Structures are given as structure tokens and as C-alpha cells.
């Protein structure tokens, strides 16, 4: 799931009451570790970022995820599905990713209310 493997360190941004706890638990079970919070200074093997329309500047948030990200590691932007409160248009994700120096690799349904978009750095 999400290209993560056991033993990797994954940092989480944008946690709030509305996140999909089953998805979070499944990621932590796969990793065998708790997710690192957004204040962690650890170099990480990947990022999940819960993002909703109205959370602020998406481009700035994407740039923030790169601070402790290992080279070539994925960033997953998790957004509410179309028709759900807080939905973010795919074009907005594409535009912000490009400005942040990332590119959209794929998108998939990850939970009943959440879609995940995998981003990669342009140097990959």
C-alpha cells in the first residue's frame, strides 16, 4: 500500500479528527512503526499529507514536506474525494506540485472518503 515497506519511517502532515483512522492504522501496521508527526526532524522514507480545501497554501505545504524527505522518497497527498467537504481539484494538486518541484505520478482511492495522489521529485 502506498509503496511503503516494513521498517520505513513515514512522516504525517495535516492530521485532524477527519482523517481515515483505518487507513492510518493499516499504514502503521505495514511499517511496524508509528507515523512521525510533522514536527519531526528525522530523515524520512516517505510522507503522507492529509489536505483539505481551506487548509492554507498547498504549494507551501508541499515544500514543507521536502525538508526531511530522503532523496527519491514519495509524498502522498490525501484529499477528500469529489463531492466531499474539503475536496481539492486534481488540477490544483498538479499545479502546486509543479511549483514545489514535484510531479504527479498516480492517484488512487485509498479509503471511503479519501483519494491519494503520489508525488515524486523531478530528480527521480
From TrEMBL:
Please give the superkingdom of this protein's source.
Answer: Bacteria
Q: Give the matching InterPro entries.
A: DUF3052
List the protein's name: DUF3052 domain-containing protein
Please report the organism this UniProt entry assigns to the protein: Brachybacterium fresconis
